[in-house]
Design brief:
The chain folds into two domains: about 120 residues, no CATH class; about 190 residues, MetI-like (MetI-like fold, Orthogonal Bundle). The chain contains 13 helices and two strands, in the order H-H-H-H-H-H-H-E-E-H-H-H-H-H-H. Helix 6 packs across helix 8 and helix 7 packs across helix 10. Strand 1 and strand 2 form a beta hairpin. It has a two-stranded antiparallel sheet.
């Protein structure tokens, strides 16, 4: 088990080094940081002093080494646009993104699992087929289209929920949350639905497929032959055996939601990391772009490594295959 764990951690480190190299390439070759940070009236001596202070007068290998060491400490430099440390900007925006992703994940499970069970148990009924058709539409529609449609319907037409912003937030130490205020909870409804729609369709279709396969298993047939009530067979026996793939898929998709929340955050002007990244691209704020790339990649790598280790704990055969 220790050898398996060391291999997975080594692979994760290699991937993160490759991501760091990509982020460093952005630093190195997308514009001159000195020209972006100083004003037009700065003298050549001031430019050279800033270049030396940033370490840009050193070799490429030395610069990359310093970049990796600084990134491991969470130091990504100063934002060109905001003239603040990138780590403080990320710390301000990360709670909003994580809150949005967590609520979207919970919605996907709370809505997707029951819909999957309904379409599996009542296969062939008109409402089951309608849900299947709706799931295809949900997968096909881009998230920004879904967001705009939700705004038009629930904000502009009905006036039930705000169209943009996060509402009032409460600071709990360094963490901020809108779940403790009425306006914060109201502002969270539409963006979380827009972000969760694709995940809901995935969960629903996965639960349906797993339920249909499990209902054909021998232990389900034996339970029915013993006269076990249909509800008990469906929910206590069949559904329990379907939840493991759903939980695994949800964990794997969590990183995707964080990465692709930037579209939803842009549509709803949600003050999270995604909106910060879009603004950084607009103003060529390279340190913020590099930090976003490294952080999202680290989340992906950490989740994948955690899933691999969990599988190895559950199924010892994977540990032997890894040798």
């Amino acid at each position: 088990m220790l050898v398996f764990l060391m291999k997975r951690l080594f692979n994760a480190a290699i991937v993160m080094l490759a991501v760091a190299a990509m982020a460093f390439m952005i630093f190195r070759f997308v514009g001159d940081p000195v020209e972006m940070m100083v004003n037009e009236q700065a003298s050549q001596a001031e430019r050279e002093e800033l270049r030396e202070r940033l370490g840009l007068d050193q070799g490429v290998v030395t610069q990359f080494g310093r970049f990796v060491v600084s990134a491991t400490r969470g130091d990504f430099g100063i934002s060109y646009r905001n003239q603040r440390e990138v780590s403080s900007l990320i710390a301000e925006r990360f709670p909003a993104t994580l809150e949005l992703v967590l609520v979207a994940t919970i919605l996907s499970l709370v809505i997707g699992i029951p819909l999957g069970v309904v379409t599996a148990i009542h296969r062939g009924r008109w409402y089951s087929e309608a849900l299947q058709l709706g799931s295809i539409v949900g997968v096909s529609l881009p998230s920004f289209v879904v967001g705009i449609m939700l705004i038009l319907l629930f904000s502009v037409t009905l006036g039930w929920a705000p169209a943009f912003g996060r509402g009032d937030v409460v600071d709990l130490g360094w963490w901020s949350t809108g779940l403790l205020t009425q306006s914060g909870r109201a502002a969270l409804i539409l963006p979380s639905l827009a972000l969760a729609l694709f995940q809901i369709t995935l969960v629903m279709r996965l639960v349906r497929a797993e339920m249909l396969e499990t209902m054909r298993a021998d232990f389900i047939k034996f339970a029915r032959a013993r006269g076990v009530p249909a509800r008990t067979v469906q929910f206590r026996h069949a559904l329990r055996n379907c939840l493991m793939p759903v939980i695994t898929m949800t964990g794997m998709q969590f990183g995707n939601l964080i990465a692709f929340a930037l579209i939803t955050e842009t549509v709803f002007q949600w003050p999270g990391m995604g909106l910060l990244f879009i603004q950084a691209v607009t103003f060529v704020d390279i340190p913020v772009m590099a930090a976003y790339l490294c952080i999202v990649s680290f989340i992906f790598v950490a989740l994948n490594t955690l899933v691999d280790v969990t599988y190895a704990v559950v199924d010892p055969r994977l540990r032997h295959q890894g040798h």
